[in-house]
Amino acid sequence: MSDAMLEARFAGRLGAFSLDAAFDFPQNGVTALFGPSGCGKTTLLRCFAGLEHLSGGAFSIDGEVWQDGRRFRPAHRRAVGYVFQHANLFPHLTVRDNLRFAMKRAKGENAGRFDELTSLLGLGDLLERMPGRLSGGERQRVGIARALLSAPRLLLMDEPMSALDLQARQDIFPYLENLRHTLSIPVLYVTHAPEEVARFTDHLVVMREGKVIGAGPTAETLARLDLPIAHERQAGIAVDATIADIDLKWHLALAKFDGGALWIGDTGKAVGERVRLMIHARDVSIALVENPKVSIVNRVPAIIRQIRRSEDPSVQIIALEMGNTVIMARVTARSAYLLDLKPGMNVFAQIKSAAIID
Ligand SMILES: Nc1ncnc2c1ncn2[C@@H]1O[C@H](COP(=O)(O)OP(=O)(O)OP(=O)(O)O)[C@@H](O)[C@H]1O
């Protein structure tokens, strides 16, 4: 991933709502926009697309000014791909013709990428289908391909998974992850789901009431306990690891990461292969001594970096450092008190489960 960053600022009023959002995001990578309902995420995407014109706005991409104090490039002259909750395909056209239509609008600029993009999104067998005969997940994959075939310089995704059921979301993730590694344009991805943030994004912008309250690389920003995302029930952090050993007898694989190692279910990955693990805060507990007499296999030495009371007064969230890796634990306030947990303490993170996500 190149380190180049883009700068955006959109400020102004829409009726009673006031937006004042300024942030940097990577030119090459996926940026999550996260925040409660009504905080202005969709409005912000609409500003990027040129569908809203707020007086205080500034954004340029690839040397083109889309907005500044004097200039405003209208929506139809911005190369933006937009993916919504529902794909809204033309019902009377096949998948192939829906995609061709998008390419035509982009004056065929991305025609050479038709095969690449349809294969990346697993659409090969669906091209002759009518949209009415696609599942929700398939329709979203077509919607994403359609947006990309329009040769965008910026891809805007507004909660693309939120209308899908759990299974469809699990099915679509590998495609999104493929895209994340392949795309060389910036993607702004609006979501309410902390798991999507951890799995799929490189950079995170947290919003509240029209303002940016925190932004930075995803793993680092997720572990900031002053931001509300760390306190969500689904909060977790994705950790990059390498398979270091296989225990054939017990069907386990040892995944090593910077700062520790975890036994996970053996999924057939060979020693030396890279994996990405999702560790949810709710699956991590803390022990002061290493206790072999528990069923939890993974007990990793860690240092407490920070402790914060959650909105739920019975819960505390703890950030734990293991080398350069930071994970979170969600423990009861009573346990934190009884164990007298404090920043700087050496403890053991007992990790009940870690799912392979890539
Ligand atoms: N054109 C408009 N005129 C007046 N108010 C507007 C306009 N567009 C949006 N708003 C208001 O701006 C606020 C932010 O809306 P927005 O849809 O951007 O929030 P959001 O963070 O995307 O929410 P959600 O997660 O529920 O989609 C809301 O209070 C909305 O009613």
From TrEMBL:
This is Molybdenum ABC transporter ATP-binding protein. Residues 293-358 form the Mop domain. Residues 1-234 form the ABC transporter domain. The keyword Flavoprotein does not apply. Belongs to the ABC transporter superfamily. The gene is modC. One of its GO terms (molecular function) is ATP hydrolysis activity. It comes from Martelella lutilitoris. One of its GO terms (cellular component) is membrane.
